[in-house]
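Hello everyone,

My group is preparing for a crystallization screen and wants a predicted model to guide construct design. The compound we'll soak is zinc ion. Before spending weeks at the bench, it would help to have a computed complex in hand. I've included the protein sequence and the ligand's SMILES below. Output in structure-token form would be ideal because that's what our pipeline reads.
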Amino acid sequence: MKRTAYKAQKIDKICLKIVFLRAQGRCQIMCGRQATERHHIFDGKWKSYWQLWTNHHYQVALCNKCHLIEPFAPHLNNKLFLVKLEDGLKKSQQNGHWMIIKAQHTALYDGTFLQEARTTPKPDYNAIYNWLVSEYEELEETNWMDLVT
Ligand SMILES: [Zn+2]
Ligand SMILES: [Zn+2]
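Reply:
Good plan to model first. Here are the tokens for the complex, ready for your pipeline.
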């Protein structure tokens, strides 16, 4: 395996861990079911830009029904899905997470993201990985604090 492919895989793996840790096992639509799957928010675009697939904020944990079957499932109706996701994140006190998704969504469609993406075509995988590790550790600590208080 190529070295960059290995690094990309490590980044993807830690993103996955963060996504499920942050959701505390729940589907982020707050449908009451367990989360079993990860969804990349910017479907159709996320594979083309490292800025999208290396950022855990642009990924959410969902149950299979909300991911693929419900009428608002992102792979069936993405617009409706974003409305449901906003509700779900607000219900679970993750308004800040929603704001990050919303800002990126706006940037993607008003062209500012693409402009910026062109100026930074190559990712620094080491820096990204280190950032993700710190994000993971911070989350772990927060969850621990929840148990104490
Ligand atoms: Zn998906
Ligand atoms: Zn669900």
